[in-house]
Protein 1
Amino acid sequence: MSCNATEIAARVESAYVTQTPLNITGAGTKSFLGQQDVNAKPLDVTGHTGIIEYDPAELIVVARAGTPLKEIEALLAEHRQMLGFEPPFADTGATLGGAVAAGLAGPRRAYAGAVRDFILGATFINGKGESVTAGGKVMKNVAGFDLFRPMARSMGTLGVLLKIALRVLPLPEAEKTLLHEENDALAALQKMNRWPLETQAISATCWDGKCIRIRLSGSAAGIAHAKAHIGGEYADGNGYWQDLKNFRLEFFQQAGRLWRISVAPMSEPFAAGACHLIDWGGAQRWLKSDGPPADIRARASQLGGFAECFAGDLQVATFHPLEPNVLAVNRRLKAALDPAGILNRGRLYPEF
Amino acid sequence: MSRTKPASDPLITQLRSVLPESCIVADAVSMKPYECDGLSAYRQMPRVVVLPESVEQVQAVMKLCQRTATPIVPRGAGTSLSGGAMPHKNGVVLSLARLRQILQIDADNRTARVQAGVRNLQISEAVQHLGLYYAPDPSSQIACTIGGNVAENAGGVHCLKYGLTVHNILQVKMVNLDGELISIGGTALDAPGYDLLALMMGSEGMLGIVVEVLVRLLPRPKVARVVMAAFDDIEKAGDAVASVIAAGVIPGGFEMMDRAAIQAAEDFVRAGYPTDAEAILLCELDGTEEDVISQVEKVEKLLTHAGATDIRLASDEKQRVRFWSGRKNAFPAMGRISPDYYCMDGTIPRKQLGNVLGRISALSTKYDLRVANVFHAGDGNLHPLILYDANQPDEFRRAEEFGAEILDLCVAVGGTITGEHGVGVEKIDRMCVQFDTVSLSQFLAVRKAFDPDGLLNPDKAVPTLARCAEFNAMHVHHGQLAHPELERF
């Protein structure tokens, strides 16, 4: 295990010199995403921990990549703040670096922002073993290229994250979950889309085939107003949203491949009669299907979005193939940061 | 000056083969308006200006420039305050101003697809009837284009709550040097592969030419109320901002002005500011009626507790607009009290506000130039306005040195040299202060991945290492950088 930055940099530098592929590992909570190179040497960064700076009045937290999310979230909660992107698997040990690299966001994403939207800066080791800093720790900063937000969803292929500065959000004064009956997918999409025009209180929506759950956040008066507008009954909510973001709802336990479909929120229902959840106000659809992967991806592309295979079949690549000219740009960016192609080779795409 | 350019420039002859004559500006008189942008102290006449009217024409120009190794300086409305659109003497100014169509408004998905030359405010105006708007609102929003906003990752008064350009764009279509049209991002909330969309934001035209943008639209808040609070001490005002934010309130806008700025604004627009105050805060709360009422109450209590000497809630929309008019006219107000002003754009951690303003005031004495401060207090983005007279020998040079010291100070306290105006030509040497050699080399490598020959907006935004070596040789004293004790993030 490598604990300090100098040690991690030295290990990457020597791997660069010897062209040895490295597999960056954190807590391993998202090892199901992407293809891991079995011949790569593990580079365990879970020892690189610690919250470096936290100032509630500045709305920022700076921490080392190996820091468990649980520790960060607990400290923020003491000051009635939170990570706005609701990353999964905090309870099973997920680290900050892994959360950023995988870029998975919970139900608040459509209303508060993605992982990348909260990153203010990062220090990382590039593929040559050099320590690069991009961005900073202030809210507005346009000096230098933005190499920090692209760390999100890069699956560790652009650099070994060392230090990340994040913007945080205040915890809402109150939170309630509404249960609103609706068994038609199209009607559910329309409702989820229309409600935010009337209230700013919505912080999550998910349709499960029978009803829409709506999480309301804000002042008690704002929540009451939203409830009156939307209609429906209060339900036990917190457990539901936790289970949704951590893939623990009954839906996820069913047999079959699990697909994450990302589309414009009002895209038509993905497949009539299919087993699916509609999350993020329509923008993220979870699909359980053993249908041909190529068909699912083609359908998602046709809707202007894409499909990722999250679980259920190791033979199916996780990530959606890129258009040739976009792939070319991806490769060039990868080569600029990791010229020898040693960092998490093939984890995102077999081409790099 | 002659209106006809000598026909001897082969580049212009070649441009005529890919563009209609009406899209080429090559005579000195007509090119004059392009010699600078909003930072008028830096000027350079271009070799030629082109104003393509279609994406295909942009592609043709790019191919031609690549083939002939001609530098390209993209330009939107030319409102940059950092010289980002300053021409290159051997290069083409590629104006996107004629790509000004709003292509599609998708009310269901709350997006608008627009060409790069569409003006920022025009988008909000086009969707007003739907109760929607485009959130980022740089002060130049009447004139500045969305393509320029992407290039600079433009901010504005409301970005603490609603984000910067990067948070409000879903897709860009850009033309690379090969003339290829590449779509980055998409209609979904995220896209497969690397987040090239984020990389494009604030890249100052160095990675490709943005020709089309898909923006997110937000529902217009039902209610907006503004609270104005006066303070007899600027640090108290800074602490008041911290206490509001620490209490869990994220205002839609949260602005501060110092005494000099208050007085100039008040003389100019009669906004109703107390002119005896050392600082005022404008705190705008927006949302639903219920939320705004509860937040106004909370904020008034917090501001009182923080020592505000006077607190006023705008009683109606008219007064709200009046309160804002002083802040929005702060820059032109300076124009009335000084022949010229130089606007800086550092961001600092908010808790450093008192310290930084104190030191700026000391620098004002040192350089014998007046300064007024307006401040996006919510997100720590400081705009010191250095007042000078360009007709007085030496004053602009002093203003520049004063500005540079302010930026070095911003970096030293953990901030940045530019919050929203960009590096451009203006702050390129300051990049050597903010970033170490390794990080700069990495930026250069990324640039090279998109533009191996360095044709896109050359000599801007990211300095070469040679330039930094020269700069550091001049500015390193006793073998040390200023403030070596501070960790550069």
Protein 2
Amino acid sequence: MTGSAESSFGQDLKAHQTQSRDFPAMGAGATLQTIVATDCGSTTTKAILIEKVGHTYRQTFRGEAPTTVEAPFEDVTRGVLNAIAEIEELSGRKILDGEKIITPSGRGGDPKVGVDIYISTSSAGGGLQMMVAGVVASMTGESAQRCALGAGAIVMDVLASNDGRLPHEKIERIRSLRPDMILLSGGTDGGTVTHVVEMAEYIAAADPRPRLGMSYNLPLIYAGNKEARERISEILGKKTALTITENLRPVLERENLVPSRNKIHDLFLEHVMAQAPGYKKLIEWAGAPIMPTPAAVGLIMETIAKKQGINLIGVDIGGATTDVFSVFQGIFNRTVSANLGMSYSISNVLAETGLDNIMRWVPFSIDEQDLRNRIKNKMIRPTTVPQTLDELQIEQAIAREALRLALGHHKTLATGLKGVQQERSISDVFEQKGSGDTLVDMLRLDLIVGSGGILSHAPRRVQSMLMMVDAYEPLGVTELAVDSIFMMPHLGVLSTVNDQAATDVFVRDCMIYLGTCIAPIGQGKWGERCVEFSLAFEGGRAPLQETVTFGSLRLVPLGVGEEATITLKPSRQVDVGAGRGESMERKVRGGVVGVLLDARGRPLQLPTEHAARIRGLIDWHKALNLYPFSQA
Amino acid sequence: MAHIYTPGLTVTPVTIVTKKRLLPIPGTVLVGQSDVVTSENVVARAELPGKVHVVNVVNQLGILPEDLKDFMTKREGENIRKGEVLAENKPFIKWLKTTVASPITGTVETVSGATGQVLLREPPRRLDLCAYVDGVVVEVIPGQGVRIETACAFIQGIFGVGGETWGSIAMVAEHPEDVLTDHQLTPDLAGKIVIGGAFVGAHTLQRAKAVGIKGIVVGGMHDKDLRAVLGYDLGVAITGTEKIGFTLILTEGFGQIAMARKTFDLLRTMNGRKASISGATQIRAGVIRPEIIVSSPSDAVPDAVGIPGSAKEGVQPGAPVRIIREPYFGRIGHVASLPSDLTLIPTESLVRVMEIEFPDGTRALVPRANVELIEG
């Protein structure tokens, strides 16, 4: 597995963006005092104000307004102005002069007028929707998919010579999809050209039309075998807005995704965004290129992982989609589960996971027909909120399943390169490891970052923590955090302009550390000894020594910024990360929740018998004081 | 949020609706500005490119791709009939000759010297775009379509399946709480838009299909019945293309829910009149809700009537509303007060609430997000 090209994505993107367009404020990063940033989402436009307070940047005010890409307004800037107007009201800072953003700040000598830069991300109008094509589905097809996903796109379909579809089926599919952009790859440099040319012929025969507008050709990026470029130009040059870039899989053993990703971002701005209502004006206002929202979130995730030298998983669970980001061994991956979400797609979570999987998290009985109707009613009225505790518990049960399914999907794509010959030692033979194994290793995972309404706005933070622990089943020692008010997109694009501002706000205002989860690996009879632990705290707090039994959860409060040394002595068949039965000592960090010892066993198995399962759930909820009734 | 607005469904006896009718690909507009059209009229037409068939000629003839052009009997752009020879080899011995026949009637689109494939295309298919509503063409968008304006009664549903259709309204339910049953769907309802009350089940929907009913409008249905009708579990609410034999519109939601009195009474006054309906629902950005449009003579429309959705104002005390989430799901009342402070609800969330008064005089505090204005 080689990931060198991937690991420099952040820097390459920043460098590319500063070179690719002439944005006046880009060089002024060091002098920025006030920044206004927006994320134009599919339903809401969220604005934040960042100000330099002393030597550090802080997020000070936020505002939001409905996104106005669609009728009757059909101008995205209307929603941006409304969201910024809300910040004006709250902060007392004059940012707007009629329908323009005042830049730079300090006009007329008044420090409370204007901002130094305006930046934005966008996923309005369904975000960036792409179709990708390769020759072999599991090789160039997958590489193209990873490339598009990493650039922030939703991948509508992956076409490949060996995808099992007949030629006319492929052509029909290409024609019916109407993506924003196509990425065509295939073949290693110098290899056979036949198959990638064949794919180009199918695309040409389909004569695909872009999603937005009728008057321009569909952007198509060719990033395949360089020997085929001439033929590709002949076939697709007149039928599409063709852009040729470096092969994204020049040799079998290496991906080179950065040039294609940069092209995707360029075309996103030049073609896709330029067609969306009001975006021409928005692009003019912005002091840095507008990024697709998931690309910005991915960038900030990648930056955190690199700066801290950690492996992480990030998740953004929205109404329609769930995005999962991971950085393992320095390799960044992103996937989007387009139909797993908590409102528009909530019914699809039920369809994919089944009723039993949802109900296993719910600590009461409910009639199946009633539950199915409730879920459908949430789908058709997506903005409603749970008013009662049982409704909240049902939504959080569904969220666990959406998170679990999306991570499963992510694991299948965040893999080493497939089809690569590997040198094997004798131990590899015994482990039966092949090429293309997932990179997601839960035991080596350091941090899980959650984002999205159901996680960021859970009434109690411990609910967010347990949702992620139940869904992801972290192994060993793992920290967890949530994004306070969903500002990671803003900070992602900000990091391309001013790294210090992005880092300051990220650390101080964006991330809410929940605490650390310790999950021993192994199974045992409920009530039997699982692990003995002792916690030595800093600052004179009395140490704690306890035994945790199988089937239980134990929460020890440890505040934000506090650390403790934990010593774990597991039972003979239990592994806490150092091997079966091996003791381990390490530092753990606290958070708004604390240190959670999860002795329910891994893999997590809930009792199959109905009454026992409900008893178990209620015990866990009480142990964590998860819901109001837990106090009783 | 500085602006409090709870979007609702429009139910109005008189309004002006403008429908944009656009072709999926460029074509020809067949009507002119100010033309009066009816729902059946074709307003624009396009030629959908025919299906493509791929023939791997080099494999069948045992030749190299670069030599393919020498073996073709038809060139790119030429017409060809099904069974006609497309390519053939030239052996020294006549009976060793191999020919490749065309599997379709159409044209030769591409002869590829790189892959050895020949792409044939069937003749284009004609796509006719109907007006869908009775009205007047107010704008022609050259090559793309038209905008049609109609003065009408306009009712939005919350969810639907099935596409655009039209027919006369048949009021079958006597009360909004009624359940639509099989025996009510008599053969004389064929081609009509049937208005039920609170509920329709899968068995009755089967009967509707057998009778040839064009549309059904009811308050609610069970999710399991929707699954039975569609044959699959609907995951994402993007509908309108289902081929289930009729168009189905729910005005309230899933479950057995009495149709809102205002909707029911308005539909009753429209009994026997022609309605255009669509089940298309899209609950994401650019929300599309199912609709019932009953066009009326334009002189019946007062000047002040606006287009639904364009004049959005905040919810005021006294406004009729529908509660759209448990524990009061489906109940209808009016806004008693709008407390401005955030209120702690049983989930421990702090939210903006509304005080709702129900017809029996009881009151409840409900999150504003869980209330829908009955507009119109």
